[in-house]
Design brief:
- The protein has 12 helices and 35 strands.
- By secondary structure, it is an alpha+beta fold.
- The strands form 8 sheets. Strands 28-29-31-30-32-33-34-35 form an 8-stranded mixed sheet, sandwiched between helices. Strands 1-2-3-4 form a 4-stranded antiparallel sheet, with no helix packed on it. A 4-stranded antiparallel sheet has the order 5-6-7-8, with no helix packed on it.
- It is globular, with a radius of gyration of 25 Å.
- It starts with a helix and ends in a 12-residue tail after the last helix.
């Protein structure tokens, strides 16, 4: 079995997949990869092995939906396929037993928009038969229990909307045993590795921090922690192999979050591990016991720490990670006995490659590349770096230099991330960054204050600093690039999406001599208007009250400050965007027009927060590249420092 064979098969099975998948070269070729190589969907999202190891469940992204395909491992013959209508995606795929899978659906109207789950659960057999809802009522998948052949955990929603945890037979749709009502109006349930309900988390009325509850021996809920009262939220992550310990992430007053162990019998908790610079990235679990065995940190490049050194799968995980230094190694699934594991390996230049690992023999067999259009040997490496902002706060950034630049300065694109609160950039593959690098542009990203991954104090350092210190961090990162010879004055553009578009326009407002041009995509530009649209929920009101603060919102809204902008602007938006409505882009456009700032605006019909249609993604990419080329690239005129 070869990677090309599997990806070509998937291309043939799903009619809308690119016809070029079978012949896309895997060896370096002369010249630049075509634009569509960076815009095309991955050939697959995920690959899960069945409990007996005889089948693969593969999710295949299309232009406006995600398809589920089941393949027989021995000959890669398709045995089942699930396809939903436009804008509906297959999610939460899980093997229940050797012959049955369950899955859910979600709607997403923009590529950058969070999916909206339908809370409907479906089943399908490996031969494609019995493709139907598990029940007529709304029931979201709550988990699949190892060793259980027919029952899955579901979250049921009654007439009042309050969720109940139940065990449902996937063949009949009937629930069995006791159903557990959540101690609050809604929230999350946590079952241990034996399938026993132990904990729940949720938000009491008027609270904006979660509380945790323990189900005691009398089957009664008892509050064990209140984030609102303590000021330091807990986030449960899993259990030990013997279920005697629950692990949770706890925010700290200073520095990164820590991983704590909570003794289920005594109620005492202790610190297990805490990184000096970054938060807990993710936890990894034993495929047999389900217990927490390792922690991975996003500290520049990934760092793995073993929590249970005696666990055989922890040793295997460490071995595999060492075989792929400077890469993320992520288990996706295992056979029931844990002998066969599927791992995806990814990095800054590799979207992902799936391996089938036999833990008994130690043999690792490549199965498929996530994207055959991308040749890792032709991608530009990304370098993490740290520097000090003007007030002494340490920041982490990521620099991607075009391969053609060598040691010479290159035109620079500064790309602030979206969010902004809690979101962060990390060392990973990004097709848009690689596209820009392939066209000769250096790309700079920085986790400005307010970003996630560096603890509560770092996140809260952004409170009240929209358009102020958050912008200073981006300016200081740009100055770092100038000081270190990455680029030259007059050859810098700032480009972002969503909040990143806000930061791009505010960068032009505050630093008119630093940036030669600015690009905003699906952006937020009028903070005052956004506040009035969001304040009617307790979270929206609390978010703006805390993060934006009691400030003059007009004074931090680039749409109202366009008269300070001196550089040309490119704006893009989707007409049906519900996250940052198109009215935001129109407001920015009006400001630029009134200030007589050169600008281009494109509104894509039928699109929302991010663009699905390849023709629209291609059009936007072509506009961005042409705009950059005109103002800071090969077609731009030399610019003196400070112009």
């Amino acid at each position: 079995m070869t990677r090309i064979r599997l990806l070509a098969l998937l291309a043939a099975l799903v009619l809308s997949a690119p016809a070029s998948a079978e012949t896309m070269p895997l060896t370096p070729q002369a010249g630049t990869l075509p634009l569509d190589a960076f815009l095309a969907n991955d050939e697959l999202n995920d690959l899960l092995v069945s409990p007996d190891g005889e089948h693969y469940a593969v999710t295949v992204p299309q232009e406006d939906r995600t398809v589920l395909v089941v393949l027989r491992r021995s000959d890669l013959k398709r045995t089942a396929q699930v396809t939903f209508p436009e804008n509906v995606h297959v999610i939460d795929v899980a093997w229940v037993n050797n012959r049955q899978l369950v899955y859910s659906e979600a709607r997403r109207f923009g590529r950058l928009e969070a999916p909206r789950r339908s809370n409907r659960l479906y089943r399908v057999n490996v031969d494609g038969s019995d493709m139907s809802p598990v029940s007529r009522e709304y029931a979201a998948l709550g988990g699949v229990q190892r060793g259980e052949e027919r029952l899955v955990r579901v979250i049921r929603y009654g007439g009042a909307g309050q969720p109940r945890l139940a065990w449902m037979d996937i063949n009949t749709g009937k629930t069995e045993g006791k159903q557990y009502k959540h101690p609050l109006h809604g929230g999350t349930y946590y079952t241990d590795n034996a399938g026993k309900l132990r904990l729940a988390s949720g938000y009491p009325v008027a609270d904006i921090q979660p509380s945790q509850y323990l189900l005691d021996e009398r089957d009664e809920w008892r509050k064990v922690h209140s984030g609102q009262d303590s000021g330091f939220p807990w986030y449960f992550q899993g259990f030990s192999a013997d279920n005697g310990t629950a692990y949770f992430i706890k925010e700290e007053a200073k520095g990164p979050d820590g991983l704590y162990a909570y003794d289920m019998a005594s109620g005492e908790h202790r610190l297990v591990t805490r990184h000096a610079r970054v938060d807990i990235g993710r936890l990894l679990y034993s495929p047999v016991t389900g217990g927490v065995i390792a922690v991975e940190y996003f500290d520049g490049k990934p760092k793995l720490e073993i929590i249970e050194p005696g666990d055989p799968f922890a040793k295997e995980l460490l071995k595999i990670s060492r075989a792929f230094p400077d890469a993320y190694v992520t288990p996706t699934s295992y056979t029931a006995d844990g002998r066969i594991g599927i791992y995806v390996v990814s990095s800054d230049v590799l979207p992902g490659e799936f391996y089938r690992v036999d833990h008994q023999t130690g043999e690792a067999t490549p199965i498929a590349l996530r994207n055959l259009h991308i040749d890792p040997r032709r991608m530009a490496p990304t370098r993490p770096f740290r520097f000090k902002a003007r007030d002494g706060l340490e920041l982490e950034g990521f620099l991607t230099m075009p391969l053609a630049a060598g040691d010479a300065p290159a035109p620079l694109v500064l790309m602030p991330h979206g969010g902004p609160t809690g979101i962060f950039d990390r060392w990973a593959f990004d097709a848009e960054i690689q596209l820009l690098a392939s066209r000769g542009y250096a790309v700079l990203r920085v986790n400005f204050r307010g970003s996630g991954n560096y603890g509560r104090a770092f996140r809260e350092a952004a409170n009240g600093e929209w358009g102020a210190k958050m912008q200073d961090d981006l300016t200081d990162a740009t100055q770092w690039a100038l000081d270190n010879g990455v680029t030259e004055p007059g050859r810098i553009c700032i480009y972002g999406a969503s909040y990143g578009a806000y930061a791009a326009m505010m960068g032009l407002v505050r630093e008119p001599g630093l940036y030669r041009c600015g690009i905003g995509n699906v952006g937020l530009y009028d903070v005052q208007r956004e506040y009035y649209d969001s304040r009617y929920t307790k979270f929206g009101d609390a978010y703006f009250g805390t993060t934006v603060g009691d400030v003059d919102m007009a004074a931090i809204s680039p749409a109202r400050l366009a008269d300070r902008i001196r550089a040309p602007v490119l704006l893009g938006a989707g007409e049906f965007d519900r996250v940052t409505p198109v009215a935001q882009t129109r407001a920015m456009e009006r400001g630029l027009k009134a200030a007589k700032v050169p600008h281009e605006v494109v509104i894509y019909k039928g699109e929302a927060h991010g663009y699905y249609k390849l023709e629209n993604r291609r059009d936007w990419a072509e506009r961005v590249l042409a705009f950059l080329d005109t103002h800071i690239g090969a077609a731009s005129a030399p610019a003196a420092a400070g112009e």
